[in-house]
Design brief:
7-stranded mixed β-barrel, MoCF_Sase_C, catalytic activity, 3-stranded antiparallel beta sheet, MOSC domain-containing protein, M1 Pyruvate Kinase, Domain 3
Length: about 180
């Protein structure tokens, strides 16, 4: 499975949205250099409040650009970095990947997929009504989360728009993504 990086973003502060950049550097075992969510232990404020010693399974947040088109059909304007992602991709089904998938990004960087982003009410603070577009229940009552995936950095490196994203699936049996 192949895709392409369309945008990269980071923020040194705990803002909802992140600024886009010409490149970001992934640091092995930490996350995005200069990003507020980088670290070995959890950095998301709600998780820190519960247990600051938890491992950081949310070092790098990826979103598929196709989501922006989907929410635009419902009247929302979302651009890269707006939902707090570090890497925006196109052409790869991020939500369909199993847990443990390795994403080779550009020449050096590799991230391991840890799970689904669990969207929160801050999304409605960004744009009213957007939360119901990125998390809802399907016809069988199952929760569907579409706000991207989370990962940890296995091998560091520079990531830029235009870089190829190549997915390497883990050995079977595959475990579906769960919220992290």
């Amino acid at each position: 499975m192949l895709g392409t990086v369309t945008s990269v973003s980071k923020s040194a502060t705990h803002e909802f949205s992140k600024d886009t950049h010409t490149s970001i550097r992934l640091l092995t075992g930490l996350g995005v250099e200069g990003d507020a969510h980088a670290g070995i232990t959890v950095k998301h404020r709600s998780r820190v409040a519960r247990d600051p010693s938890q491992p950081n399974l949310r070092q790098v947040h990826l979103i598929h650009a196709e989501l922006f088109d989907e929410v635009a059909a419902a009247g929302h304007t979302v651009r890269p970095g707006d939902l707090g992602e570090n890497i925006t991709t196109t052409g790869i089904d991020l939500l369909g990947l199993p847990t443990g998938t390795l994403l080779h990004i550009g020449d050096e960087a590799v991230v391991e997929v840890t799970g689904l982003r669990n969207p929160c009410t801050q999304i409605d603070g960004f744009q009213a009504g957007l939360l119901k577009e990125v998390v809802h229940r399907d016809g069988d009552g199952n929760v569907v989360r579409k706000a991207g995936i989370m990962s940890v950095v296995v091998a560091g490196g520079e990531v830029r728009p235009g870089d190829q994203v190549r997915a390497v699936l883990p050995a079977e049996p595959h475990r579906p993504l769960e919220r992290v």
